[in-house]
Design brief:
The chain has one helix and three strands; from the N terminus they run αβββ. The protein is of the alpha+beta class.
Length: 71
C-alpha cells in the first residue's frame, strides 16, 4: 500500500508475495510428506476400487493398492 494522497494497492508486490507464499507452502508440504514416509507418485490417476488406483505415467499404467490414497 502506498500512502500519500490516494491509497492504492501495490498489485505487483501482492503477486510477488503470493508467489513466494505458494513456493514456501509447496516446499513445506513436500517436506512433511517425506518426513512421514509418504510415497509421492506423479501421473494421471483414476480410482479402480476401494483401496486401489490406476496410475498412468509415460504410457505405462499400473495398479496401486494402499490403505490410504491421496489424489
Amino acid at each position: 500500500i502506498h500512502l500519500g494522497g490516494d491509497i492504492q494497492p501495490d498489485v505487483d508486490a501482492m503477486h510477488k508475495r503470493k508467489s513466494e507464499v505458494i513456493v514456501e507452502m509447496r516446499e513445506r508440504v513436500h517436506e512433511l510428506l517425506r518426513e512421514n514416509n509418504v510415497e509421492v507418485l506423479t501421473g494421471h490417476a483414476r480410482f479402480a476400487g476401494e483401496h486401489c488406483v490406476e496410475l498412468s505415467t509415460q504410457g505405462e499404467t499400473r495398479k496401486i493398492s494402499a490403505v490410504h490414497i491421496v489424489v
